[in-house]
Amino acid sequence: MLVFISLTPNWSIACVSRVRRQGTVYVKRRTLTWRRKKVVGGGSRARGMASSSRSSGRLAKIPENVFHGFLAIAAAAMSSPLSAEDEGIFERLQQRADPKVLEEQQQAVNERMRAIYQKAQLRLGELIDQNSTLPCAISSIQVLNATHTRRGFLERIFNPLLSVNQKKAYTLSEALQEVSARADKLNRFDIFQQPVSVYLDQSPDADVRTGLPNLDVYVSVKEKPRILLKTGTDLGNTEGSAYGNLLYRNVFGGAENLNLNASLGTRTKSAYQATFETPILSDPDFRFELGGIASATQKPWASHEEVLKGGWSKLRWMSQSGSRQEVGYSGFWRQMTGLAENASPTVRADAGDSVKSSIFHSWTTDKRDNALLPTRGYYAKAFNELAGWGPLKGDVSFWKSEIETQSAVPIPIPGVKGDSGVSFSTGFRAGLLYPLGLDSDSRPQLSRVNDRFVLGGPTDVRGFRLCGLGPHSGADAVGGDVYAAGSANLMLPLPRVGVENPLRLQLFMNGGRLLPLRTANKDVPTTSGEVKDAMISTISEIGNGLPSVAAGVGLVYAHPVARFELNFSVPLVVRKGEDHRKGLQFGVGINFL
User: Fold this and answer.
1) Bacterial surface antigen (D15) domain: which residues (predicted)?
2) Quick one: pLDDT at residue 439?
């Protein structure tokens, strides 16, 4: 009997006995395997799994001369006599070895092992290619070590692969592709550690219906920790915060996640949020989310604090093209409180309680190579919200729509091979808020301060203070109902820093306009007809004249957590009442214009 130990990432031991029959050696192997019927989830939910040492019961035909060749190599390696130079080997072993020599020897061993593994992988790939069209059947699929995952959840993923549920036979390549796709699906649930390993074995019995060779599929997983508690700091869109987060994975054994979060920040004084998320029909790309929040946010640009309490439910899915969509309902109780002594009359008029009940839909596609520092690709997003209309109730009613796009292209430099690191990007955002009546017969509800758009700051229109563009009442930025903003940016790698470094020199020009809803006579609309005319008039006004514009130069650093910008800005066009900023401006965020 011979013992072979495979030198692959997945170590295995096989005991092999040989039988001589008429000049040919037959090899019979005995391996340690795991057996379950069909798909097994594991743990108390999936019983019947047992460990056993079994013989495959099959004889693999090996030419005798090849078999004896293996024995000769092994014997030569084990029985080589010591030369005269090796007589003092024990004395040399007792001597202290040079660490550099040991390191070189270890590197040589590692390189040798790597070469053997790569050669084995190449040979395996050749064997698969040569046999890719062979017909086969999948008789069983076993998921190992999924101790906290429901059997029914796994069956919905893997049962369709079984040949009894297929109308036609697999080829070997098709079987491998289908199994690989299901393993990738398991990865996307974020409850298993990567990688998910897949093993194939030929069953001793052929398929009953077709007589084809049967394949047994083994999927080996390792579950991530179910409870994860972390604390830290967060940076994003001109705000910093400290947070504590509790994540409970795989709550009911079907990849459900419960996320509890508490944070204290520079603008959001306190926020407590809970979300529960579950996949629908065992599909990682189709999810349902239920959440709630209670927060208090300081808004110094409008001299008040907003207290928010409410919740939402939504469905999320991803299309085959890679775009993501969301549709859902949200209900919030808002309080404008903590007014400053110098709060404007407009802010005081909207102070107090309001209830927003709305349905919403968003569509997003992102083909950028890097979301924080794109050099090629494009991004697009559309968001629509309908509040307070018809059965939605609440005391605010409007239709709100926003679009956002970004594109980037690399710029080749003559004489520079490969990626030059120079890129040009553009961005555009626009939105409108259309007032509606609470029912079909009532007069339109004009927008409130906490529903309007705001514009300006280091993450959108640089060169202006936070929410510095658009209508103001006294010192307060009270927002607008229609806006448009755009930017053009040239990114250059710094000398002696390198293209791979996420530090760039930025040249930019950006601008935008934010307007309140007004009729052609600059009056506030009061009827549905006036609202329609006012919206047309306001959108036309956006294109009349130059927008508020600023240009500048700065440094950009794309950290994995957020993007940091330090810019020197010069406002070029400023309208009366707008709050601009000349000089240095620092911005931190994840979404820049």
Assistant:
1) 250-592
2) 77
Which residue segments constitute the domains of the chain, with CATH numbers given? Answer: 2-79+101-116 (no CATH), 245-589 (2.40.160.50)
Q: Cα–Cα distance between 176 and 138 in angstroms, integer?
A: 10
pLDDT in tens, 403-425: 999 999 999 988 888 788 899 99
Preceding amide of 195 cis, omega within 30: yes
**83 CB neighbour count, 10 Å cutoff:** 8
The single residue listed with the structure tokens 């500048």 is: 552
- Please write the tens of the pLDDT for every residue from 579-591: 998 999 999 888 8
- Over residues 372-410, the pLDDT tens digits come to 999 999 999 999 999 998 889 899 999 999 999 999 999
490 neighbors 508 (Cβ within 8 angstroms):
yes
- In angstroms, the CA 476 to CA 473 distance is 5
Token duo for residue 52: 């056993």
Please provide the DSSP assignment of 16-75 as one string.
Answer: EEEEEETTEEEEEEEEEEEE-SS----GGGS---EEEEEE----EEEEHHHHHHHHHHHH
Q: Count the helix, strand and coil residues of the chain and give each as a percent rounded to the nearest 5.
A: 20, 45, 35
**Is the distance from CB of 460 to CB of 489 less than 8 angstroms?**
no
Contacts of residue 496, Cβ cutoff 8 Å, sequence gap at least 6: none
Report how far residue 437's alpha carbon sits from residue 393's, in angstroms, rounded to the nearest whole number.
10
